[in-house]
Write a structure and sequence with these properties.
Number of strands: 0
Distance between the termini: 25 Å
Mean pLDDT: 82
Number of helices: 12
Oligomer: single chain
Order of helices and strands: HHHHHHHHHHHH
Amino acid sequence: MTAPLAETAGALPRRSAWLGWTLALLATLAFSLAPAVGKAAIDLGIDALLLLTLRLLITTGLLGATLGFSQPARLRIRPRSLRMCAAAGFANGLGMVFFFLALTRLEAAIGAMILSLSPLVVLLLLALRGERFTHRNTIRLGLGLAGVYLLIGPSGQVDLGGALLAMAAVLAFPIQLVVIQWHLRDEDPRTVTLYIAATMALVAGGWWLAQGAAWTPLGLRGWLLLGVLAVVSTYLARLAMFVAIREMGSGQFGLLQPLETMLTVMWSVLFLGERLAWVQWLASALIAASALMAMQRLRRVRWPRE
């Protein structure tokens, strides 16, 4: 999934804007590969929880090594901030577990479409915190729910259990965003990401152990897919995301989420041979419109301080 959304003020120099958008597009491209690559690995017979655990362990190791060699002082974090990172990582780890389990029952394109509803859940969470829920938010929510219904309802071809797991991921992922925005805005984002990733690895690894710690041989192709998933779609994507947000602002970066979903659908069709009915393409358009409207609203939100 893509970066947290926050409003950014001020005009950017042309060079910074060019660099920001270039890296943002590269990060979006890398993020968009994750569902299709993960689905391809699962289709090889690799246990989903094992795949997720290895992905997060590799990512955590790379992030820790990068920070340790470049700026070791950034490894230190205040105890309270560490607790907030653990809370955000626990929620995001659960979301990742639910999504990877959903990929065992859903096509990657369907899972990505459902996941793109996350901005709507952020608006709902902000409403619980006192942010006004407007009539336009009701329209956004209606479009998203209509898209989900068309996606899993009329065709009858979508596994309901898989869809529910994907919806559980949609509910879990935004918790990380609000925790970061409310409690971790003053911390270095690289430090926060490292400790969130480490907590996610613990959650995924714990779930894998609780389910019997099934080990399935990955084989050469499996290890290659895992490498793309961990190094390209997670580690390198997040490094590009950090620089992009610094140059252009996370509100601008977040507007690329519909593009990420569209690219994921394209990779799923091209490389996994997935096919969508016309009603599912209509559902995709409704969900994308809803997500884009929600993110435009999130750019104008006054994020409450604790």
